[in-house]
Amino acid sequence: MLKIDLYHPEREKLHAHFGNLIKLAKADGIIDATEHQYLYKLGKRINMTPEEVDAFIAKPLTEKFIPPFELQDKYEQLHDMIAVVSADGNIDTDETRICRSLIIGLGFEDSKVDKIIEVISKQVAEQVDLETGFEKFRKELFRR
């Protein structure tokens, strides 16, 4: 994910994505320390200060979902989602439900959702970098 300055046109999309990650992190009723840590790390990648991340966690700026067009951008959002829900070592039913709906919202077929979660969960657990992970994801799920 690119670093985005405050006035970049992609910022609204990133804020929507960040809001979805917060919704996922809150799905089990609490944002634990490992989920907080990941949110701060992602916030830093998109030029958010820790104070902005805290404010966003308290009240996300947007509720709308703005899906990216490019497969690699979709993959990065999927990776972030899976990383957040698995950060505490436990993916609960509400997190899975929200994750499934966001994956479908990204334009993926319902029949591929479980495989997407499986593939990316394994990559997150193995700490595969985004570039390598995307290539494996693309080949495994889309044979391109």
Describe it for me?
The chain is mainly alpha-helical and 144 residues long. The protein is built from seven helices and no strands. The protein has one domain. It has helices at 11-26, 33-45, 50-58, 71-86, 93-105, 113-125, 130-142. The chain is globular, with a radius of gyration of 14 Å. Residues 1-8 have low confidence and may be disordered.
What are the main properties of this structure?
144 residues, mainly alpha, 7 helices, 0% strand, globular
Low-confidence stretches: 1-8
C-alpha termini separation: 22 Å
Helix segment count?
7
N-to-C order of helices and strands: HHHHHHH
Computed over alpha carbons, the radius of gyration is 14 Å
Largest sheet: number of strands, sense, barrel closure: none
Structural class: mainly alpha
Number of domains: 1
**Overall outline:** globular
